[in-house]
Model the fold of this input.
Amino acid sequence: MSLLDAVTSVLVVHAHPDDETISTGALIASLASRGIRISLVTATRGERGEVVAGPLSVLAGTPALAKERERELERAAFTLGVSEGFWLGEAPARAPGLPARRYRDSGMEWIRPGVAGPAADSDTDALARAPLDEATADLVAILQHVRPSLVISYDETGGYGHPDHVRVHVATIAASRSLGIPFAEILDAPAADADWFDLETQHETVVAALRCHASQLTVDGDSIVHSGGQRDPIRTAIGLRLR
Done:
């Protein structure tokens, strides 16, 4: 038995554009191909991310970068089969009675290879500095709107320690538990208490979605080359563990 056997709808929560494809692209595409409704909440526009050298590099540090990453996310989500996408802080992913707000990318600093920590100069409106209760209430609002069978997001480390990923984990698991909706965390490696899914059949779809994020990465064979030059394998296997 798999924790996905009885699932009819899923809400996936991510911190920045491209996270949905890098971390969960194969899973989203696989579920969508089975007729499962996929909703996606993205918390920030990734405004502080680096830009791949080339025609789009002029967008770095400008308001136009956020707009470009909105467009890239829209194209990637469509490619993967996402049914509907939302921005955290904007209705219906906003607590009733509060004016819309934009959570900004908090930035990060590398502590050691593969492990990130918070940036010292994050803005006051950054996600990692926003009140946790507010972000949680926004997620409660979108959960009540979507009513998914399952919520999927990061584990407690956020995958590699990015403060926005960690904040998304904390707020999402709190919102899910408050409504009694099952929450599953993403794992990068098999574990005895988790389900493991090998989804290599979705490789071409994931590659197509990755190419939509041209400001942030390039695809080189079976690898992702990030804007900073780091290389990672394209992921088509994922673990999920109920929390």
The chain has five helices and twelve strands. The longest strand covers residues 9-14.
